[in-house]
Design brief:
about 425 residues, D-Maltodextrin-Binding Protein, domain 2, 6-stranded mixed β-sheet, 18 helices, disordered N terminus
Length: about 425
């Protein structure tokens, strides 16, 4: 295991622009309504349902109990069920106490509805959190100035593939968009589906990665964040350019890409039925451990060298219900989750393809992780992901528009008009 503190500082400094998205209008409650019982274990609702990630969370909860602290009770929910049910969890009369989820604007959208617990006490009393970077501080802060989130790990997105498959097919990583198209041509000529997607089976949001990357490569990260905040229109000419480029590569996509979930698409890539896919490292939590050393990735190709290089590197962690009746226990658990020990336990138990937020925590030290850290550190700008840079409420508008585009790319004009209409309903709500 290795620890690259200077690299982590450079990455977390790069989060500054993304962290600014958390500073939207809104507020966060600073007191508990006491609607859940103060007795019993803290309930931890987790969306980390992939086998290795789930096992890692179980290890984490067990380690917390051994410290003589109040127990935490882990409830793991299928990721897609969790995603759709989260607003219901938070607004229920007796909600779970703590949740795995995301910081930034997606958390602030819940904070401004008074649904998230004020975590200032954890941040001010934890020796670990006091040392977290200014960028992470910003990313975890609501517009009221209250902390609402404790970050745990971050990871990266890229074009993933198996090294042995690329070697067998006699192809190599592309650097430019033209080289990427050439790679797709070569794979197709060998009877291999060049690009897997996995935007079906409840994981339509995976298609948003293609929208995000094309937009930050063509229009830049700042334009992208402003678009998701409603400061540009989805039917603007700049957005149309995104889909013009997407149509160039669309013939190389798996024809069933909008029908199968990302887990199935990942399996197809690992088995060599498809060549590569744009995905986050979380897919490795469902991959065989024996395959991890054979997994590699390359940067989403640069399209315009004049556009500052941006990468998607989302942060994961925890927030808590404002309605918890276990305030003190929640604060204690949050402080533990911020420690190097806790983050190393999670990394060891999972696929090990994430990077810790604690400046003292060690990563898995594998060749893949070292390459991933360098990949993120080299970015001029960092974005999170579509819903994380906007809101969970806006994500379904993207899912709807992008799935329609994949089915009927020539109808992109009317699709973007409809997307703008649907997005305005969210922004104006």
């Amino acid at each position: 295991m290795t620890n690259h503190q200077p690299d982590r500082r450079r990455f977390l400094a790069g989060l500054g622009a993304a962290g600014a998205t958390a500073l939207l209008s809104g507020c966060v409650t600073s007191t508990s309504t006491g609607k859940s019982s103060s007795k019993g274990a803290v309930s931890l609702q987790s969306n980390l349902s992939a086998p290795q990630a789930k096992a890692a969370m179980q290890d984490l909860v067990a380690a917390y109990a051994k410290k003589g602290s109040d127990r935490a009770s882990l409830n793991t929910v299928a990721a897609e069920t969790f995603r759709t049910q989260l607003p219901t969890y938070l607004t229920s009369a007796n909600p779970p106490d703590v949740y795995t989820w995301y910081p930034g604007s997606v958390a602030d959208a819940y904070a401004k509805k008074n649904l998230l617990l004020d975590l200032d006490e954890a941040w001010t009393s934890s020796p670990d959190l006091k040392r977290y970077s200014k960028a992470l501080n910003s990313l975890c802060t609501a517009s009221s100035g209250k902390k609402v989130f404790v970050p745990n790990t971050y990871y990266w997105w890229g074009m993933f593939y198996r090294k042995s498959n690329f070697a067998k097919w006699g192809v190599s990583e592309p650097k430019s968009w033209d080289e990427f198209l050439d790679l797709c041509d070569k794979l197709k000529s060998k009877g291999v589906t060049p690009i897997g997607l996995g935007a079906g089976g409840g994981t339509a949001w995976v298609a948003s990665a293609w929208f995000d990357y094309l937009d930050i490569r063509i229009n830049g990260a700042e334009y992208h964040r402003q678009l998701l905040a409603g400061k540009h229109r989805f039917d603007d000419p700049e957005v149309r350019k995104v889909f013009d480029r997407w149509q160039e590569v669309l013939p190389y996509f798996d024809q069933n890409g909008a029908a199968v979930a990302f887990q199935d698409a990942s399996t197809s890539m690992l088995n060599g039925r498809s060549g590569m896919m744009l995905i986050g490292t979380f897919f490795a939590d469902a991959a065989p451990k024996s395959a991890l050393d054979d997994i590699d990735f390359f940067r989403f190709p640069v399209i315009d060298s004049k556009v500052p290089l941006a990468e998607e590197a989302p942060v994961d962690g925890y927030f808590a219900s404002a309605r918890t009746g276990r305030h003190d226990q929640v604060i204690d658990l949050m402080k533990y989750l911020a420690t190097a020990e806790a983050q190393e336990i999670y990394i060891k138990g999972s696929s090990g393809t994430v990077l810790p937020c604690n400046p003292d925590a060690k990563d898995a030290g594998t060749a893949l992780v070292k390459k991933g850290r360098k990949h993120v550190d080299s970015a001029v700008e960092i974005t999170q992901f579509f819903n994380r840079d906007s809101s969970d409420a806006l994500q379904p508008t993207a899912d709807n528009a992008l799935i329609k585009f994949l089915a009927k790319p020539k109808s992109i004009g009317s699709i973007l008009t409809d997307w703008q209409r649907d997005a305005e309903k969210i922004w104006n709500a």
